[in-house]
Design goal:
two-stranded parallel ribbon; single chain; 20 helices
Length: 394
């Protein structure tokens, strides 16, 4: 039976192939000790290892199958016949016959490399370090050839469950590489905007930004006067003058400032927010386009209106708009006038036992909100200026 003669030494069998056969025999309900697996695979040559791998990657169709039965199937025997031989003990005789054949001689290890003159032999620490490296490599190989957990056929056909991303934690995506790498566009020279063809582009940016300060912030992301230096406000003014757009942008800025100022009742803070500017930039823009006088006139009109309100409920409501009063710079004047009017209103009433009774009577007589009146008295410190009737005299 030349088929069962050893063609290599059992120790020369690749470990991954031996592990795959042992796992296959376990699934085929066959006994597969490590020594028996290597003895069986020693019957095959190195060229047959890929056939063994193809067989062990699939699920066994018949049972039981041992290591020699696997070798028999790889050699061409039908799986059902191999399973029957496994039950009859046929492969125990085959193993004894294969053990009597002589294994091919293992190649002798290469002689140690001669030590060159002048080169010191490795110290004990270096030898120990190399030993640790070899142990790490061996551990890695053991992990690679470990048996894989196989799912049933029904579960293997199902798609893997989709990972549910947490809505509270942002996923850390990998950094783009290769052709997907994001590279910032190189800034162009500011001098290119002086070309006649750039006038249309500049007009579009003016309509989009609305003012020269926002225009400069937009252009400094794309253009540089020189390396690392963006355009200054003077560069923007010179560019607008070159294309004869200074009057057009000044007219647009003037209309935006005055209309927004009127709409927001003279509040410059809200005008700056509407134009995407801060208070300093808005003040500079007002000075550049020369509308300081008109801005002051609009604000004075709203100041007079805030101070001349005769409707007391409206004035009590405006007391809660502290930021608006601070923007108009009339906080002290407004509070002084309101204190005077509230005191006159309360002094017309007879002396009450406490503040709560006084607020209730005053609110009913003058159609006021008791909570607004009480809040105004607390904020303005009017309570200390009022007289109340002692409880013993009631």
């Amino acid at each position: 039976m030349e088929q069962w003669q050893r063609r290599r030494h059992p120790d020369d069998v690749p470990t991954p192939i031996a592990v795959a056969v042992a796992d296959f025999c376990r699934r085929a309900r066959g006994q597969a000790p490590a020594s028996v697996v290597r003895e069986a695979l020693a019957v095959l040559s190195d060229d047959d290892d890929f056939r063994v791998k193809e067989l062990t990657d699939a699920e066994p169709s018949v049972r039981p199958l041992g290591p020699f039965a696997v070798v028999d199937v790889v050699s061409g025997t039908a799986p059902a016949v191999a399973a029957q031989r496994e039950l009859t003990g046929y492969y125990d005789l085959v193993r004894s016959m294969a053990a009597k054949t002589e294994a091919p001689a293992r190649p002798s290890p290469p002689p140690p490399a001669p030590v060159r003159k002048g080169v010191k032999p490795k110290a004990g620490a270096e030898v120990a370090r190399e030993g640790r490296k070899q142990k790490k490599v061996a551990a890695t190989i053991a992990q690679k050839i470990a048996p894989k957990k196989r799912l049933p056929a029904a579960a293997a056909s199902l798609p893997p469950p989709a990972e549910v991303a947490s809505p509270w934690k942002k996923r850390q995506l990998p950094t783009p590489r290769g052709k997907f790498t994001r590279i910032e566009a190189e800034a162009s020279r500011f001098d290119e905007l002086y070309r006649p063809a750039a006038r249309d582009e500049l007009l579009g940016l003016i309509a989009q930004t609305g003012n020269r300060i926002s225009l400069r912030k937009t252009l400094e992301r794309q253009y540089v006067v020189r390396r690392g230096v963006g355009p200054s406000p003077d560069d923007i003014d010179a560019l607008l003058e070159h294309h004869k757009l200074s009057r057009a942008i000044a007219r647009q800025e003037r209309e935006a400032i005055l209309s927004s100022l009127t709409e927001n009742h003279g509040a410059l803070v809200k005008v700056a927010d509407a134009m995407a500017l801060n208070a300093f930039e808005l003040d500079r823009l007002i000075a550049v386009i020369g509308v300081r006088g008109e801005v002051t006139e609009i604000r004075d009109r709203w100041v007079r209106e805030a101070l001349s309100i005769r409707n007391l409920p409206m004035r009590l409501e405006m007391l809660g708009r502290g930021k608006y009063l601070a923007d108009l710079k009339i906080v002290r004047r407004f509070k002084e006038a309101l204190v005077r009017d509230v005191l006159e209103l309360l002094e017309e009433l007879p002396v009450m036992a406490d503040l709560e009774q006084l607020v209730t009577v005053a609110a009913k007589r003058h159609a006021l909100n008791p909570e607004s009146l009480r809040t105004a008295i607390d904020r303005l410190g009017i309570e200390t200026q009022l007289d109340f009737q002692p409880a013993s005299e009631t």
